[in-house]
């Protein structure tokens, strides 16, 4: 059974860059690696509806914290069988965002800490009711919120297809989400967390496979 690793962080923190670097490092050393990116935009109706809501469609849908959280959770729940199969046939399965993102973003929206009610609700829903596999490790990108927000803004300015959604445009929300992520990491929420601040990616890759 392969190791399941979730990479978490704000929009613009560099998750895709980190995942790509880890995959290249591991495959070069002969490991079998699979990746999943959540939300699965373009593959999942629930993820697409959530995205459309965050860009102004579907009336007041995005105003409901729990409705939006449920849409993202249902997107992941639809991938349970695929994740399980991948962990059975690979040495490492790496997830670009996972359940912790739902916990952090919705705690941030409700101005709760990591020990608040919505974080427990997310864990009960996704790991309990939906049976999502619990990661063996989490990696949190420790990029400062201001840096991540500037990267997301610059990315959107250079690519019309990457327009920022309502969450990304809300700088106060991004700061609160960053704080919750750090609390989750400090508490080793559901499994051990490592923080990556941009140091040697090879060292991180080696650490994760020990």
Automatic annotation (TrEMBL):
Which enzyme class?
A: transferase
Q: What is its EC number?
A: 2.7.4.9
Q: Provide GO CC annotations from the record.
A: cytosol
Q: Residue ranges of the Thymidylate kinase-like domain?
A: 7-186
Give a Pfam family name. Thymidylate_kin
Write down the chemical reaction(s) this protein catalyses.
dTMP + ATP = dTDP + ADP
Give a GO molecular function annotation for the protein: ATP binding
Keywords, A to Z, come to: ATP-binding, Kinase, Nucleotide biosynthesis, Nucleotide-binding, Transferase
**One GO process term, biological-process aspect:** dUDP biosynthetic process
Q: Which CDD domains match?
A: TMPK
Matching entries from InterPro entries are given as: P-loop_NTPase, Thymidylate_kin-like_dom, Thymidylate_kin_CS, Thymidylate_kinase
Please state which protein family the record places this protein in: Belongs to the thymidylate kinase family.
What does this protein do, in the record's words? Phosphorylation of dTMP to form dTDP in both de novo and salvage pathways of dTTP synthesis.
User: What is the official name of this protein in its record?
Assistant: Thymidylate kinase
Q: Can you name the source organism?
A: Gordonia alkanivorans CGMCC 6845
